[in-house]
Amino acid sequence: MMMDTHLTTRDQQSCTANPEAALRNRVCDHLKRLVLDCWFPACIDRQVGGFHQNFSRDWTRKPSTTRSLVFQSRMAWVAAEASHLFPSKRDHYLAIAQHGLDGIQQYLADGEQGGYYFATDPPGVPREAVDVKHAYAMAFVIYAAATASFAGASDRAKSMAIDAFTWLYNNAWDQKHGGCHEALQRSGKPVCVDASADQASGNDSIGTPLAHKTMNTHIHLLEACTALYRVWPDPLVKQVIENLQQLIYEKMWVEPGTVHTVFTNDWVPVKDGESFGHNVETAYLLVESMHALGKPDDADTWDKARMLVDHALKVGWDKAHGGFFDSGDGKGAVSDDTKTWWVQAEGLNALCLMHKHFYAQTDRYFEKLQQQWAFITQHQTDSVHGGWYGYLRWDGEQVLDGGEKANEWKTAYHNARALMNIIRLLEPGAK
Predict the structure, then answer these.
(1) Which whole number is the average pLDDT over 232-243?
(2) Mean pLDDT value across the chain
């Protein structure tokens, strides 16, 4: 599979006449050929069920029977969202989404105590871990099932999303300090919740020290509840969305536009540094959540979102090659200059969002958007086999992980979401 990364004369003329339309066309073609057509049907496992989640660079399946709730949910979400974006292939993608949700129910649902396991290996047997369930992973099953319901799936999808949200809220929501306890026992009881940060030892399933909360889990809970609220506008879901927004503004926020990453249970920050990808992703998720609550033009939300993107551009943007570096030290310097696939995707999405809202004030975001797209198409994309590389050297000239296309954490979720959002944002007449 070869990708043309050079503009033809016709493309150049089109870019000059209507650069937004030209970019949208290129993004749409990229999404179909180099993302969706690479993942589907390759990852659909007809024998075991659900999605196979380990592939080498050339999309050869690597031996694995693991089923991770994060991976399975993310791929079900991609298919569900694609069914909504491409009406002519609605039934095709919705069937894939349902296949994924069925696999989750088959291998990851706890039929006795409710909720969903973080991972099973082999399928059906919970992986040995201090926390067999986790709020981060549960957020994605809510997200996938709610999105499938919104796209027109059976009532089972909506029930699945509601049940997962209800189980998580009843078991893990922190009524005293707000937010959610993250590492969970099978019963839903938090792991080490009664221990101090010093007394708890070890990390949970997403690498966080036990007895802590993270920005990462909570922005994805916001994402999940936003999707759920579209199909089930229950007052409790709205209350949780507003609480999560408040936590971002009051507990996570750091001037002039970044967010702390790790906290004690009572929201005391305990780790320096910043993730540029999470900064710009948080900007998008805040705006999306306000849309869901019927306040798409909320000035405070847009101001905060813009600050997050502007800070990431100031500190984390590669002025020489385009693209965002991975992370910073929290003091204005880059600490990891790797170019990571999901960070580039979130940067692309956030830059387009800022461009559409602030285009009357500045063309800066569209300029950076085009540079970001150029870096992705010229470096982050595998022009031979399709799909995106995971990790690149800062200049894009060296693949750092062997080019494997999928593992438990690398899915099509970040890049597919970014590309689909851009197609919508750059549609003529879109606001």
Answers:
(1) 98
(2) 94
